[in-house]
What we know:
Elements: E1 3-9, E2 13-18, E3 23-28, E4 31-34, E5 39-42, H1 46-63, E6 70-73, E7 78-82, E8 85-86, E9 89-96, H2 100-105, E10 112-122, E11 131-132, H3 134-139, H4 145-168, E12 171-183, E13 186-190, E14 198-202, H5 212-215, H6 221-234
Antiparallel strand pairs: 1-2, 2-3, 3-7, 4-5, 6-7, 8-12, 9-10, 9-12, 10-11, 12-13, 12-14
Amino acid sequence: MERKEKLYEGKAKILYLTDEPDKVIAYYKDDATAFDAIKKATIKGKGELNNTIASYLFEYLNEKGIPTHFIKKLSDREMLLYKVEIIPVEVVIRNLAAGSIVKRLGIPEKTEFNPPLVEFYLKNDELHDPIICEQHIYAMNLATPDEVQQMREITLNVNELLKDFMKENGIILVDFKLEFGRKDGKIILADEISPDTCRFWDAKTGEKLDKDRFRFDLGDLIEGYKKVLEKFKKE
């Protein structure tokens, strides 16, 4: 597999074209950002950890029958993916209240949502990724009602699978963000699943093991991400 020219560069990853038109290579960077990139840092080793954790979780979901763009891990920082047309809608699912919903609605942190709460956000940095409803999605022609329903169903399925997986490994899955793409007329899971895009709390201590460590100066980010990976491997 030959890596060719750069296709896209985001905050945490670079996508490269390959010698196969339906496949791309994702390279995970060491960059960390928060609060619309107002807070920035380069944290050595972050990219390798996110690539390893995301590969681990994508492999697990693929095995469980979830349609994803993940093919295989190529190296410490690279994974091979199917090329998809990204839908500019972020789907957030919340099992417990944390982060923006606490600030936005005044819901106390750790409040349980049963059933889990699903939210949609417009993927647009210039507009600061505002929260939107399904009618906004249709009005802006971002996705069809059938596609939104598929995104919702996949998100709920992923949540149940990952909640069980995390519980077995001593982690509380608080919430996470998913992105989706179109491939051959089908909706599949895209982007990444990592401590950058999920909230992971230690089930015994309540310690936050995700990017909130960087956002709110709660401790060394690499240490938290390493703890996540260690739990996957030993518990």
